[in-house]
Design a protein that fits this description.
Blueprint: H1 7-20, H2 23-29, H3 32-57, H4 61-74, H5 78-89, H6 95-105
Length: about 110
């Protein structure tokens, strides 16, 4: 299932596409500097994959506990993601206000 892009996402995609078609962008993509950046990105991806594999294969209780703690901190609950999304659309959104309003209805 593909995620539907919002208005700003589509605008960003269009601007990026037009920018990438410019002569300056084409020169940059063909430059040695860009090749170095791409090489560095590939090395970082490989390092990250190797590190993840090493951590997952570790039998050390300390490493496993640290990995589980990091997963809990990094992974957001569905409720937290919904609140973050609401705050993107309404910066003044407050969950407590919503709870109070809901209590008044019932």
């Amino acid at each position: 299932m593909t995620k539907k892009r919002g208005v700003f996402g589509r605008m960003k995609d269009g601007a990026t596409e037009r920018l990438n078609q410019t002569e300056a962008a084409q020169k940059f993509y063909g430059s040695e500097e860009y090749k170095k950046v791409e090489n560095m990105r590939a090395e970082a991806r490989d390092f990250k994959a190797d590190l993840r594999e090493t951590i997952d294969a570790s039998h050390s209780p300390v490493v496993q506990m640290a990995n589980q703690a990091a997963d809990k901190v990094i992974n957001e609950s569905a409720c937290a993601m919904a609140i973050k999304s609401m705050k993107r659309y309404d910066p003044d959104f407050d969950l407590e206000d919503l709870t109070d309003e809901a209590m008044e209805i019932f």
